[in-house]
Amino acid sequence: MMDGWFDSPGAWWIAGGALLVLAELAIPGVFLVFLAIAAVITGLLSLLFPELGLAGQLVSFAAWAVVAVLIGKRWYREFPVDSSDPLLNDRVARLVGETVTVVQAIENGTGRIRVGDGEWTAHGPDASVGTRMRVTGGDRGALRVEPLPGALPQH
Fold first, then answer.
1. pLDDT tens readout for residues 128-142
2. What percent of the chain has pLDDT over 90?
3. Would the keyword Oxidoreductase turn up in this protein's UniProt record (predicted)?
4. Which long-range contacts (CB under 8 A, 24 or more apart) does 143-146 make?
5. How many other C-beta atoms are found inside a 10 Å radius of the C-beta of residue 79?
């Protein structure tokens, strides 16, 4: 009975979906699962409608992939996954509260600060080189800074 089962394009789509699920398990990224869903649905449709043809199968796969990703995106927005480090991919948020040093005077609201072993553009009150500041946020690739409490402004 299994002879010829893989002669059907639908079976190949389902097998491809299964491989995508295994790849998702091996390399978690929460994306391949959506493609796997699209592949399995396309496989089932191909088995139900053998006249679908390659073009129809590709359109089905693309459409179901978009639908699966949109549903997944909505799901993760409404039911976010708890993380032990929620700021992992938000570099600016991780820097808020850090003490930094001005390396290019902040004049007219703009200068440069040292953060770790790198430098960032900074926006804040005027400050001379060497002034210690605190990061309060970020804006378009620059950090917002303010003087440390009790620090006298330097010019």
1. 999 999 999 888 888
2. 57
3. no
4. 143/92, 143/95, 143/100, 143/113, 143/115, 145/100, 145/106, 145/113
5. 7
What is the reported pLDDT for 87? 59
Q: How far apart are CA 1 and CA 9, in angstroms?
A: 17
User: For residues 100 and 114, is the Cβ–Cβ distance under 8 A?
Assistant: yes
- How far is Cα 2 from Cα 124, in angstroms, rounded to an integer? 71
Place of tokens 């570099």: 91
Q: What is the pTM of this model?
A: 0.53
DSSP-based three-state secondary structure for 84: coil
Label residue 154 by pLDDT band (50, 70, 90). Answer: low
Q: What is the pLDDT of residue 1?
A: 46
Query: Where is pLDDT greater, at 57 or 81?
Result: 57
CATH class, domain 91-147, is mainly beta
Phi, psi of 143 (to 5 degrees): -100, 140
Give me the phi and psi of 4, to 5 degrees please: 85, -5
Token duo for residue 78: 């409404």
Tokens coding 101: 């040093």
